[in-house]
Amino acid sequence: MASREARFHKQVLIDTTPLPDHIPKVKEIGASSAPLMSASFFIGARCRAYNDDYMQCKTEAHGTGEVDCMREGRKVTRCAASVIDDINKHCLQQFRAHWQCLEDNNQQMWNCRTAERPFNKCVFDNLKLEKVIPGTPPNVVPVHQRRKQIFADNDQSKDLVFPTTKAKTADTKATA
Q1: How far apart are CA 149 and CA 138, in angstroms?
Q2: Alpha-carbon distance 153 to 76, whole Å?
Q3: Is 61 domain-assigned?
Q4: Which positions fall inside the CHCH domain (predicted)?
Protein backbone atom coordinates (compact mmCIF):
# COMPACT_ATOMS: atom_id res chain seq x y z
CA MET A 1 0.00 0.00 0.00
CA ALA A 2 0.91 3.66 -0.05
CA SER A 3 3.34 4.94 2.53
CA ARG A 4 1.34 8.13 3.08
CA GLU A 5 -2.28 9.15 3.05
CA ALA A 6 -3.76 11.11 0.20
CA ARG A 7 -4.57 14.75 0.82
CA PHE A 8 -7.43 16.43 -0.92
CA HIS A 9 -7.74 20.18 -0.75
CA LYS A 10 -11.28 21.43 -1.14
CA GLN A 11 -10.41 24.96 -2.14
CA VAL A 12 -10.40 26.46 -5.58
CA LEU A 13 -7.23 28.20 -6.65
CA ILE A 14 -7.81 31.38 -8.64
CA ASP A 15 -5.02 33.40 -10.19
CA THR A 16 -5.91 37.05 -9.59
CA THR A 17 -3.00 38.44 -11.57
CA PRO A 18 -4.44 40.85 -14.14
CA LEU A 19 -3.67 40.28 -17.80
CA PRO A 20 -1.26 42.67 -19.51
CA ASP A 21 -2.82 45.84 -20.95
CA HIS A 22 -1.89 44.98 -24.55
CA ILE A 23 -4.25 41.98 -24.50
CA PRO A 24 -7.75 43.10 -25.52
CA LYS A 25 -10.58 42.34 -23.12
CA VAL A 26 -13.36 40.06 -24.34
CA LYS A 27 -16.55 38.80 -22.76
CA GLU A 28 -16.69 35.02 -22.49
CA ILE A 29 -19.33 33.16 -24.50
CA GLY A 30 -21.14 31.80 -21.46
CA ALA A 31 -22.62 28.75 -23.19
CA SER A 32 -22.47 25.18 -21.92
CA SER A 33 -21.11 22.30 -23.96
CA ALA A 34 -24.39 21.31 -25.69
CA PRO A 35 -25.03 24.69 -27.40
CA LEU A 36 -21.35 24.94 -28.32
CA MET A 37 -21.40 21.45 -29.81
CA SER A 38 -24.60 22.23 -31.70
CA ALA A 39 -23.07 25.37 -33.23
CA SER A 40 -19.53 24.02 -33.55
CA PHE A 41 -19.54 23.34 -37.29
CA PHE A 42 -20.89 26.83 -38.00
CA ILE A 43 -18.35 28.40 -35.64
CA GLY A 44 -15.67 26.47 -37.52
CA ALA A 45 -17.01 27.63 -40.87
CA ARG A 46 -17.02 31.34 -39.99
CA CYS A 47 -14.02 31.45 -37.65
CA ARG A 48 -11.59 29.19 -39.50
CA ALA A 49 -9.05 31.94 -40.24
CA TYR A 50 -8.96 33.02 -36.57
CA ASN A 51 -8.66 29.40 -35.41
CA ASP A 52 -5.80 28.79 -37.85
CA ASP A 53 -3.95 31.91 -36.64
CA TYR A 54 -4.38 30.84 -33.01
CA MET A 55 -3.18 27.29 -33.65
CA GLN A 56 -0.21 28.56 -35.66
CA CYS A 57 0.74 30.86 -32.78
CA LYS A 58 0.47 28.00 -30.28
CA THR A 59 2.58 25.74 -32.53
CA GLU A 60 5.28 28.34 -33.07
CA ALA A 61 5.44 29.15 -29.33
CA HIS A 62 6.41 25.52 -28.51
CA GLY A 63 4.27 25.33 -25.39
CA THR A 64 5.09 28.76 -23.99
CA GLY A 65 2.45 30.80 -25.81
CA GLU A 66 -0.25 31.13 -23.17
CA VAL A 67 0.16 34.89 -22.90
CA ASP A 68 1.76 35.42 -26.30
CA CYS A 69 -1.21 33.86 -28.12
CA MET A 70 -3.89 35.44 -25.93
CA ARG A 71 -4.65 38.11 -28.56
CA GLU A 72 -5.38 35.44 -31.19
CA GLY A 73 -7.40 33.45 -28.66
CA ARG A 74 -9.53 36.49 -27.91
CA LYS A 75 -10.25 36.91 -31.64
CA VAL A 76 -11.47 33.30 -31.73
CA THR A 77 -13.73 33.94 -28.73
CA ARG A 78 -15.20 37.11 -30.25
CA CYS A 79 -15.87 35.33 -33.55
CA ALA A 80 -17.53 32.36 -31.83
CA ALA A 81 -19.67 34.73 -29.76
CA SER A 82 -20.79 36.50 -32.94
CA VAL A 83 -21.85 33.17 -34.47
CA ILE A 84 -23.83 32.24 -31.34
CA ASP A 85 -25.47 35.70 -31.32
CA ASP A 86 -26.45 35.42 -35.00
CA ILE A 87 -27.84 31.92 -34.53
CA ASN A 88 -29.85 33.10 -31.51
CA LYS A 89 -31.15 36.04 -33.53
CA HIS A 90 -32.21 34.10 -36.65
CA CYS A 91 -32.68 30.43 -35.64
CA LEU A 92 -33.37 30.41 -31.91
CA GLN A 93 -36.19 27.83 -31.97
CA GLN A 94 -34.29 25.30 -34.13
CA PHE A 95 -31.04 25.92 -32.26
CA ARG A 96 -32.70 25.38 -28.90
CA ALA A 97 -34.41 22.18 -30.10
CA HIS A 98 -31.10 20.78 -31.35
CA TRP A 99 -28.93 21.61 -28.36
CA GLN A 100 -31.58 20.43 -25.90
CA CYS A 101 -31.74 17.14 -27.82
CA LEU A 102 -27.96 16.86 -27.50
CA GLU A 103 -28.20 17.66 -23.80
CA ASP A 104 -30.86 14.96 -23.29
CA ASN A 105 -29.06 12.32 -25.39
CA ASN A 106 -25.56 12.37 -23.91
CA GLN A 107 -24.41 14.72 -26.70
CA GLN A 108 -24.55 11.98 -29.31
CA MET A 109 -25.24 13.60 -32.66
CA TRP A 110 -26.83 10.53 -34.23
CA ASN A 111 -29.72 10.71 -31.77
CA CYS A 112 -30.56 14.27 -32.85
CA ARG A 113 -30.55 14.17 -36.66
CA THR A 114 -34.27 15.03 -36.86
CA ALA A 115 -33.69 18.23 -34.86
CA GLU A 116 -30.45 18.92 -36.72
CA ARG A 117 -31.87 19.07 -40.24
CA PRO A 118 -34.16 22.10 -39.70
CA PHE A 119 -31.40 23.80 -37.70
CA ASN A 120 -28.85 23.31 -40.50
CA LYS A 121 -31.37 24.57 -43.07
CA CYS A 122 -32.21 27.67 -41.02
CA VAL A 123 -28.55 28.56 -40.49
CA PHE A 124 -27.81 28.10 -44.19
CA ASP A 125 -30.84 30.13 -45.29
CA ASN A 126 -30.19 33.02 -42.88
CA LEU A 127 -26.43 33.06 -42.28
CA LYS A 128 -25.16 31.26 -45.39
CA LEU A 129 -23.07 28.92 -43.24
CA GLU A 130 -23.04 25.27 -44.22
CA LYS A 131 -22.17 22.27 -42.07
CA VAL A 132 -19.15 20.52 -43.56
CA ILE A 133 -17.57 17.59 -41.75
CA PRO A 134 -13.79 17.67 -42.28
CA GLY A 135 -12.31 14.56 -43.83
CA THR A 136 -15.52 13.32 -45.46
CA PRO A 137 -14.53 11.59 -48.71
CA PRO A 138 -15.91 13.33 -51.80
CA ASN A 139 -17.80 10.25 -53.02
CA VAL A 140 -19.66 9.63 -49.74
CA VAL A 141 -22.87 11.29 -48.59
CA PRO A 142 -22.07 13.13 -45.32
CA VAL A 143 -23.57 11.44 -42.28
CA HIS A 144 -25.88 14.34 -41.44
CA GLN A 145 -27.40 14.29 -44.96
CA ARG A 146 -28.20 10.58 -45.16
CA ARG A 147 -31.84 9.61 -45.45
CA LYS A 148 -31.32 6.42 -43.44
CA GLN A 149 -29.04 6.53 -40.47
CA ILE A 150 -26.75 3.64 -39.62
CA PHE A 151 -26.59 2.99 -35.91
CA ALA A 152 -23.88 1.02 -34.16
CA ASP A 153 -26.42 -1.11 -32.30
CA ASN A 154 -28.46 -1.99 -35.40
CA ASP A 155 -26.99 -3.92 -38.35
CA GLN A 156 -28.32 -2.26 -41.48
CA SER A 157 -25.38 -3.05 -43.72
CA LYS A 158 -27.72 -4.15 -46.50
CA ASP A 159 -29.33 -0.67 -46.53
CA LEU A 160 -26.14 1.40 -46.82
CA VAL A 161 -26.51 4.70 -48.61
CA PHE A 162 -22.85 4.97 -49.64
CA PRO A 163 -22.56 5.76 -53.35
CA THR A 164 -19.34 4.39 -54.77
CA THR A 165 -19.11 6.34 -58.02
CA LYS A 166 -19.83 9.87 -59.14
CA ALA A 167 -22.77 8.64 -61.22
CA LYS A 168 -24.39 7.11 -58.15
CA THR A 169 -23.70 10.29 -56.17
CA ALA A 170 -25.65 12.37 -58.67
CA ASP A 171 -28.43 9.76 -58.70
CA THR A 172 -28.63 9.74 -54.89
CA LYS A 173 -28.83 13.55 -54.74
CA ALA A 174 -31.57 13.57 -57.38
CA THR A 175 -33.76 11.16 -55.38
CA ALA A 176 -33.18 12.91 -52.05
Answers
A1: 19
A2: 38
A3: yes
A4: 91-124
Element (H, E) at 48: helix 48-61
Question: Does residue 42 belong to any structural domain of this protein?
Answer: yes
Single pTM value for the model: 0.70
Residues 83, 150, single domain; the answer is no
- Identify the DSSP state of 135: T
Pick from 46, 54, 45: which is nearest to 73 by CA? Answer: 54
Q: Please count the structural domains in the chain.
A: 2
- Quote the radius of gyration of the chain (alpha carbons, Å): 21
Domain range enclosing 158: 136-176
Confidence of residue 78 (pLDDT cuts 50, 70, 90): very high
Rounded distance between C-alpha atoms, residue 24 and residue 94, angstroms:
33
